[in-house]
Amino acid sequence: MQRRKFLQAGIGLGMLSQVNWKTGIAMANEAVSSSNPDQPKIIGAPAFIDRQRLQGRNQNRSTVVCRQGVCCASQTLAASAGVDILKAGGNAIDAAIAVNAMLSLVEPMSCGPGGDLFAIAWIAKEHKLVGLNASGRSPFEWNREKAKEHGYTTALPELGPHTWSVPGCVSGWKALSERYGKKPLADCLASAAETARQGFVVTEIIGGDFAGAARDFKDYPNAAATYLMDGQAPRYGQVFRNPDLADFFEILMRDGGEAFYRGEIAERIVKHSKERGGYFTLRDFEEHTADWVEPVSTTYRGYEVWEIPPNSQGISALQMLNMLETFDIGSLKPNSAEHLHLFIEAKKLAFEDRAVYYADMNAAEVPLQWLISKEYGRERAKLIDPQKASTNVQPGAWDGSKDTVYLCTADADGNMVSLIQSIYWGWGSREVPAGLGFCLQNRGRSFSLDPKHRNTLEPHKRPFHTIIPGFLTRDRKPQCAFGVMGGDMQPQGHVQVLMNLIDFHLSIQQAGEQPRVQHFGSTNPWGGAMKDGGSIGLEAGIGPQVAEQLEAMGHAISERDSGMYGGYQAIWREEEPMRYFAGSDPRKDGAAVGY
Predict the structure, then answer these.
(1) Within this chain, do residues 418 and 435 fall inside the same structural domain, yes or no?
(2) Residue 575 above 60 pLDDT?
(3) How confident is the model at residue 25 (pLDDT cuts 50, 70, 90)?
(4) Are 375 and 432 in the same domain?
(5) Which residue range forms the structural domain that includes residue 564?
(6) What are phi and psi of 117, to 5 degrees?
(7) What's the pTM value of the predicted model, to 2 decimals?
(8) What phi and psi values does residue 297 have, to the nearest 5 degrees?
C-alpha cells in the first residue's frame, strides 16, 4: 500500500502526543472559557483552539463542523454521495446506504454487496439506539464432515468457494431503508449505479490496494474480467468503470433488495457456486435474515460505550475498557511507554477470551454479561503488571486482513448512523459471479473445525466476525458515532481512539490522527492461550525512546514506522444548539463532508 509522505517522514501524526499535549488541552479549555464562561468544555470537539498558537501543528486536517448533516467515509465520492442524499431530503439512514453503495464501487477490495454489514443507529424520533446484524450464515449443505472430505482438518482454506457464507449486506440496506429511511432504496443506490457506468478516478491509497490485483486474480477469471484494465490493475489517477456492478444496482433499484435473495441475483450466485464446487443453494438465500439486535455496553469514565454483541468481536473493546478504567490513564502522557503497555496488556487478556467465547449466540452459549461486567474487568486487570509484559496469557475461567470500510452519518433531525461493512480479506474469496460486478466474501473461513469450539463449523450458522461499529452516549443521549476498520485492529483502534477522546481530551480529528499501535497475537484465533506474548507494531510518530522502553518491559516489536493501523471515521455531537464535529483518518483517501 502507498503511504502518506507525512507518515514516512514521521511528522504530522502524533505531534501533540510527543510535544505539547498538556499545553494543547489547557489552551483548548482556556479558549472555550474565555469566549463564553458559561459554555461547557467540549471534550470531543475543542474546535475553539487556535492551532497556530501551539508549538507545531498537531493535526493534519481541520475538524469538520456543521449543523445540517455530515457523512464520513474512506473515499470522498462516497462521503459526497451521502451528503447529496441528505440535501435531497433523505436522512442519515438513507445517507449511510448511499455511502456504502458508493464504497462498493470505489473501494471494491474492501467491501461490497458480496459481504456482511453491522450498524448501530441513534433514531431521534424513538430516542434510542438500535443495532443491526446483517451478517450471513454458512450454507445448509456445508459442515465439518464435508470439510474433512475436502482435506480440511485444522482450518478452512483462505480463498475459494468453501469460504463462503451468505452475503448479508443487501439485507442490511433493505432493513435500514424499510424501517427508518425516508427515501426509496432506489434513490440511495442511484449515484453508485451512475458512477459505476460512467467511471471514477482511482484515488491514491485505493490505487495502492489495487496494485496486486493482476497477480491475485490469476486463477479467478471473472474477477480479472471485472477489475483489470487490459490485463493490468487500475492505477492511481486512471478512470475505472464497472458496468456489471451498474447492472446489479439497477436490478435492485427496479426489484428491491429482496431480489438479492429471491430473484435473479440469488439464482446467478447459486449457479456460480455449482460451477465452482461450492455448497450454496437457493434455500440459503431464501432463509437468510438480517436481525435487529440490542447493542450492549459498558461505561468508561461517565460515558456509555456501545457495541454489537457476538458473533462480532465488539465486546472485546468493552472488556479492554473495563480493565483500563482501573488505571489512571489520563495522568499518563499519550503514547508513552507506560500508557501503551497498559493498553497492550489489556488487549492480550481480552483477545484470549475472544478466542474461547465469541460465537453466534443463536448457536452457542456465550457468557456475554459475565465477559463485559465491571467485576470481571477488575479481576482481569489485576493480572496486568504495570512494569512487565506478559508472555503466557490465559482466557478467563467461566463457571457456567482485514479489509473493511467504516462510515458514519448524521442529519439535521439528530439521527446518527455508525456502519461497518466488509468482504473480509482483500477481495474476499476472489470469486465474482458472472455479470454481477462484485466479489463474494470469504468470511466462512473464520469457523473453527474443532467440534468442541463454540465457533465450530455447522450448517446455517453465523461465523465469528471482526467488523464492529461503535457508538458513544452520555446519560443515554447520543454523543459520538465512531469506528476503526482493519480486522483484529478494530477493537484495538476503538479503545485507542476513546482514550484519546476521553482520557486525553483530544478533538474528534486529533483522536484519529495520533499514532497507533497494534498488538499481533502469536496463535491461531482458536488455538488456545498465547505462550510468547506476541509482538507489537508502532506507527511513525512513536519515538525510539518509547520503543526502547517497551522492549525493556518485555515487548517484542515486529514493525516500526512502517504500518498504518486501521482507518478511522467519527462524528461527535453537541447540543444547544445541536451541531456536529467530524473527523476522517488521513490514513485513507476519504473525508468528513458536512454542510
Answers:
(1) no
(2) yes
(3) very low
(4) no
(5) 1-76+109-136+294-425+440-595
(6) -150, 140
(7) 0.91
(8) -145, 165
